[in-house]
Here is the input.
Amino acid sequence: MSFEVPIGPQHPIHVEPLMLRLKVEGELIVDVDVDVSYLHRGIEKGLEVRPYIQGLYLAERICGICNCAHSLCYCLNVEQLLGKEAPPRAKYLRVIVEELSRIHSHLLWLGHYFHTLGFETLFMYFWRDRERVMDMLELITGNRVTTAYNTIGGVRRDLTAEMESKLRKALEYLEERMRYYEKVVDNESTILARTQGVGILKPDEAIKLGTVGPHLRASGVKHDVRYDDPYSGHDEIPFNVVTYDSCDCYGRVKVRMGEVLESINMINYALDHLPSGDYRLKIPPLFKAPEGESLARVEAPRGELVHYSISTGGTSPYRYKVRTPTLANLLSVVHMLKSRGDYEVYIADVPPILGGIDPCICCTARVIITDEARKTRRITTLSELERYSRERRGRRR
Amino acid sequence: MIEEVLASIIFPGAIFILAISLFYEWIDRKLYARLQNRVGPHLAGPFGILQPAADFIKLLSKEDIVPEAADRFLFTLTPIMASTLILLACMFLPIAGPKGIISFDGDLIVVVALLSIYTIIVYLAGEGSNNRFASIGATRAALQLIGYEIPLTLAILSVAISAGSLSLSGIIQAQQERGLWFIAGPQLIGFAIFLIASQAEMERIPFDIPEAEQEIVAGWEVEYTGRRLALFRLSKDLELFLLSGLGATLFLGGSAGPIIPGLEPLLHTIYFIVKSVVMLVIFTIIRTIFARLRIDQMVSFSWKWLMPFAIILIILSEVIA
Here is the structure.
């Protein structure tokens, strides 16, 4: 006998509205249905009706935690349209703040992840240490969460020597703490019992399902936009792409812990080799972008983030499209949550598996209107789909 | 006669037990918070010592909702039964003397039975509220019972075998006569089994599987609100007190200790509280340092590890005693 257990749209594991309809037999999950459309905010449309400089602030608010990645991606996109490039010092400063926000995001995730496993102590410890990163973000950018640091043509503020010394001290502290947490995670038997062998995603499946980011790297695939397509001086800064080949939830924890340490090294290197010069280009606030299209990719904390825009020569983009990492990773959640053969998924495995992709639902909701009353069927070809994604909904200005 | 009535109502009876179990909840919460680098309860009373009482009163005054689909009879009965049963079991603990308020030969068996009945009440409470999460939680509670109950009972019985008595007062007497507490010797295994199994009995991390917040919201108690929830909370505090007191009595000599004539009840109470707070601190530390297990892992852990050790322990106690 099976019955349906609703995880969401309101559920303690997730503050954002996500609906997982689990069909369970006892404790085993046999089928899953995902619904993400509870929070459509119309940001893509909003970006199309605003001047580029105002769009920056809207783009930053697509996601609270990866705000830095979104604003950076938006800036790269617009700079590409304008045919300009940020000065070298700005590139390094962008890396510093981007990596700081990656540390902040990963620490938040690690804390929340252990909370979903019922390990409240580690949750509190991670979030305490995350406060240190938040203080650093506030010191450097002026804001704790929505940093508003990147701007078209560079960054808004310079880094002073006083900030640098405080930042180095904080990084030292964080590195020490992370080494300790690595020891805890490697040796704590209840964590190992709950994560090892849970949510198996083989590399070929991961690639087929289009997963990105740490989730993909935990399946042993070396894929990182910073490495494959250096966008902000990443070709000059040496770093390792952290991968782990256990393909399970334990690997996802290990990859993120490794990335925090790697980010600390990157920031230290960037601080050591910070070029002098301007930190932003002078660009007038209201400008017209030349006709054309552009695509920028950024490695957000959750994975590859894509911003795509079409300009028709106006002061705002004709079409703006955002592809967030969670949208790419959700398919693999459905795959991992279904029991098949000797791969068994329990209700208790839902939080670790869903949490493993670091879901961010507010960036994910998309709307496609289907007319169910008419009951007509239509086959959409690939080229039609492409046109559909490029076309702006509504009136052409 | 009047003294006995006062003893069972005020000290060391119902009112004292209720007050001290709220105090134990405060110790548990405060220590848990401090171990996690948090402040913990700090608003009501000095160091937040009145916070559990304030929470209890707040819950009593909250709206009382009975879901339409719920079984009204079970929904009303189970919170009352749960708190009453555990309060009754607490009456057997020898707090202010070598004997509890209720004491007879074989009272240990009654305490163990009441603990098991409590879990069955929990099962009924979950199934009676007719909610998907509650019914999963209730099933988990029953499954968990299969895992921990036999080792727990065996650990308690092995103490009785060593003492040659099935009454709590007899066990305390035996420890006094030996001049050594039962924790020294083979009963150390029993102590470990008791600690682990009690954690499961009390549904605390790593065995808070029946009410796993992140998985099944609040498990079996998800539909309970207001005074019903307050009673369940109270029965949890009482259970915490009962199991720390039981552990102290069985393994740490309970209320026994050096006595100054004239001050017996006071000194016995102090010894009892100190020893049971030691148990409480161990319980709290256990729940601080682990993640939650999955139900299948919990049951297989109990049968693979706790059961064999419990059987070895029984044999050892039989041979040595």
